[in-house]
Specification:
There is one protein chain. The protein is of the alpha/beta class. Helices cover 31% and strands 22% of the residues. It has 16 helices and 27 strands. Helix 2 runs parallel beside helix 9 and helix 3 crosses helix 4. Strand 6 and strand 7 form a beta hairpin. The strands form 8 sheets. The chain has a 5-stranded parallel β-sheet, sandwiched between helices.
Length: 538
């Protein structure tokens, strides 16, 4: 992969503040093994039994995997793609790839032939590592099709599974490496693809310093300790999985329970059994746990903190999380693959701000809000959010996409937001998620926040559907709470009117669904909802 490094002026800026440089993942693990080699890091989240690994175990397995990669001829800067579930081997492989100076390219397991072929072809991946059958999908068959579509892909390896035709088992190749070339702090070390729902995913380039900056923020804001135990309830190959459940525990010596597949009842049992202190996740994960049959406050009393970061986080969900977790520190945050954890609530913030906003920019980060012409807007005025900070990626793999950056290095996020006089930011929607009704722009997010307060509504997504008279009409797709009975459009309208919502924002169509379609990272697939509820011929 062509080398990409941050401009000299950006390096100088962050090095002057101590935000950069940051160590590579393999260097972090080497230091952790030096300090606490026998401390348990990884715990398998199973109903019965399960393995555990110490930091020394992780390092030993990663060394053997690194030897396998070197034996295949993998060299610094080459891309190793991997599509593994939440397995210990995935964490070890991420370290091993870093150890040899290659670029780690995690791919979420929900991606299928089209997406994986696109990623491996664009990234020019040299190696692809896959499991066997996961949730009914044989990834060996998928990988065979990908290999035919990605001309640079020389090696396909399996983990925990018998290899298929033309494949080899990674375990059979493992040996201690004779030499390795770990990354420098400003080398591209990880290539993440955004989990888009309608277009091809975008390859995002990160370095040890951009990702390590997130660990630094966590230490400053939330004060993690070796006594913490977190639970991984969403895909590890997502950037948040790598940073929060691999890098953060390695940096601070804490423990993590890996759930291979999210199961809300099992999650509740694991929190109780392992005395989990941090149990956050996307809204769908929190809602499912709270609705689990075995949920009880005494089972989750160990939880001291719960964060949620997604477009559909509502104040009501945060209040429910505080109540369910017995007063734990509950906060919202905002970030993206390109710029993880850009804002966050903090322990000293008023509850109204932690529940009702996405927090303030974390230390070292700067936010701008601009109108459609790119002109700055003032406090409490909606505009597009532009972000800059030490954790901001160094660009996209496709250079054409770098047009999203301003000349002075800010990223145009495409998200609409409002910043109040104290610097707290509230995401109000997406530029592309606007309903245009009779020429007036309506934010779907704002309508969703109001509907989420309805006592019968468990989950909601608002879309615009074509309408001959108004251009688009407001359509609310809702999931009802258990025992809620029925919900009528008239009830919804009365509720919104009682809240003082402007008439234009009140839904004109109501669709009650069993669940909202989501992608692997929990984002609602509004494209699927629009396709489902689009009028015939619309």
């Amino acid at each position: 992969m062509q080398a990409t490094r941050p401009p000299d002026e950006r390096r100088a800026r962050h090095e002057a503040t101590g935000e950069w440089p940051q160590p590579s993942l393999s260097a972090m693990l080497a230091e952790r093994v030096r300090r606490t080699p026998e401390r348990v890091y990884l715990i398998e989240g199973r109903r019965e039994g399960g393995r555990s690994w110490t930091f020394a175990d992780l390092a030993a397995r990663a060394e053997r995997m690194a030897g396998a990669l070197l034996g295949l001829g993998v060299r610094p800067g080459e891309v190793v793609s991997w599509q593994l579930p939440n397995w210990f081997e995935a964490a070890a492989l991420a370290v091993a790839i870093d150890r040899v100076g290659a670029v780690s390219n995690p791919i979420i397991t929900i991606y299928r032939e089209r997406e994986v072929s696109f990623v491996c072809r664009q990234a020019r991946a040299r190696v692809l590592v896959v499991p066997g059958v996961v949730r009914g999908v044989d990834h060996r068959e998928l990988a065979a099709a990908v290999r035919a579509a990605a001309p640079d892909l020389e090696h396909v390896l399996t983990v925990r599974a018998e290899p298929g035709p033309g494949m080899r088992a990674l375990e059979a190749l493992e040996r201690t490496p004779a030499a390795a070339t770990p990354h420098g702090p400003h080398d591209v070390s990880m290539l993440f693809y955004t989990s888009g729902t309608t277009a091809d995913p975008k390859g995002v380039l990160h370095t040890p310093s951009t990702l390590g900056a997130v660990i630094r923020f966590q230490a400053e804001l939330l004060h993690p300790s070796p006594d913490d135990r977190s639970i991984l309830q969403f895909p590890l190959p997502h950037l948040g999985g790598i940073v929060m459940f691999v890098m953060l525990p390695v940096a601070h010596g804490s423990s993590t329970v890996f759930m291979e597949t999210f199961d809300p009842e099992l999650a509740v049992d694991l929190i109780e059994r392992h005395q989990i202190t941090s149990a956050g996740g996307p809204p769908a994960v929190l809602q499912a746990m709270f609705a689990a049959k075995n949920f009880a406050p005494e089972k989750v009393r160990s939880v001291r903190g719960s964060g949620a970061g997604a477009a559909d986080v509502t104040p009501e969900l945060m209040r429910e999380a505080k109540e369910r977790f017995g007063g734990a520190l509950v906060h919202r945050s905002y970030g993206m693959t390109e710029c993880p954890m850009f804002t966050s609530g903090a322990p000293g913030d008023p509850e109204a701000k932690r529940f009702g906003t996405d927090g303030r920019p974390v230390p070292g980060c700067v936010a701008r809000l601009a109108d459609e012409a790119g002109r700055p807007v003032g406090p409490n005025v909606e505009g597009e959010l532009l972000v800059y900070g030490p954790q901001l990626c160094v660009g996209y793999l496709d250079p054409a996409l770098n047009a999203a950056f301003t000349p002075d290095g800010f990223l145009r996020t495409g998200d609409l937001a409002v910043m109040d006089d104290e610097g707290f930011i509230r995401i109000t929607g997406r530029r592309k998620d606007i309903i245009i009704r009779k020429g007036e722009n309506l934010s779907a997010k704002g309508i969703e926040d109001d509907l989420a307060a309805h006592p019968k509504v468990a989950d909601v997504a608002v879309i615009g559907v074509p309408d001959a008279q108004s251009g688009e009409r407001v359509c609310a797709c809702v999931v009802l709470r258990p025992a809620a009975g029925r919900l009528s459009l008239a009830e919804v309208r009365a509720f919104m009117e009682a809240r003082g919502v402007m008439r234009q924002k009140i839904p004109e169509q109501l669709e009650v669904v069993a669940e909202l379609p989501r992608n692997a990272t929990g984002k609602v697939r509004k494209d699927a909802l629009r396709a489902r509820f689009r009028p015939a011929g619309g």
